[in-house]
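Example record

The entry below shows one chain as it appears in the dataset: sequence first, then structure tokens.
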Amino acid sequence: MLVALFALSLLQAPVPPAPEIELVESVPLETTLDHASIRDADVVWREMIDGATQSLSFAQFYVCDKPGSKLSPVLAAVERAAARGVRVRFLADAKFWAKYPETLEALAKHAHVEVRKLDFADGAGGVLHAKYFVVDGTSAYLGSQNFDWRSLEHIQELGVRIAAPEIARVFATSFEQDWQAAGKQLGVKSLDAPAKLAADALSAFPLELDATGGTVRVTPLVSPKEHALDAALWDLPRIVALIDGARKSVRVQLLTYKPAMRNAPPWDELDGALRRAAARGVDVELLVADWGKRKGTIEALQELEPLEHFAVKLVTIPQCSTGYVPFARVVHAKYCVVDGERAWLGTSNWERDYFYESRNVGVLLEGAALGGALDGFFADLWKSSYASAIDPHATYEVPRFGE
């Protein structure tokens, strides 16, 4: 009888509320990189999409599915949302639309689904590189994952789910700005008012949100500066200030790190911030995908390794036993965590055009609840067998990663 009553009490126990902000990962198959405490992107995406009642707005670099993949159920959730009357809009980069048209064209055939391509080079010079979506104007997801089946199965990724109307509003407004720009390029006569944030919108930030293990202060960020709705939301100076405030450690993970490019203006804002941190005794650690072994990219990484208080590792994900997968089997997460307490997480690689020419988004996170989690996420990869210290004198062979 007592056992039965105890079991009944467990069934009736209140379910703790979901955190307002949480980290979300993707893990390459056949690796040991999974974190039991971090939910998978395909699960979170389906949950968010299935909960939509009014609108779904997707801004994606591109969309690419493979039948039977983890992305297929996500797209099925999108179709279900459209079928129940949710307004669904997909905005994708014009250049990559040409490379991956099939999935978007299939989506466009559904009622309540609108699809547009944006040539972000027209006026800014770059691409729509952001990867985010907004649900009902009240919650949002952003991260390194492209809307690509490979991102969910063969690439290490990291993103964040945010349930906060104040933050969702910023990304929804940025989406409207780009949606209208794409409409003008297509010759669509829009009756919508120009996309603007309310005069008092920025006063909400940083916004305190509940996370597992405590609270986090969150500020939404956008790039490039000229298309950032407000200069205060431009991410580059916020990241520089984050690093300049480091006292003990700076840990950065990226696909690519490239402080200089041929035929481009000199750019040392982030590189300079990392060097300043190391020079004042802060331990700086940098994890970069082995795609960075290319000539013109590897040299800058090799220059950093000999610096005192600086360490660089390259990460190699082995090919899957099922065979070679192009543009996959790589680490693609993009974040910086300082002192285990403050962090940036976003969609930008650390190259000049991601901040000055291309559309990207991110968040600034203040608080040990997520700062500590990101520190642990970094440490797990840093200590893993997939990461190896860069040799400042080596001549590296570029790994195969394309078609």
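Notes for this example: The chain has a mean pLDDT of 94. The first strand starts at residue 21 and ends at 26.
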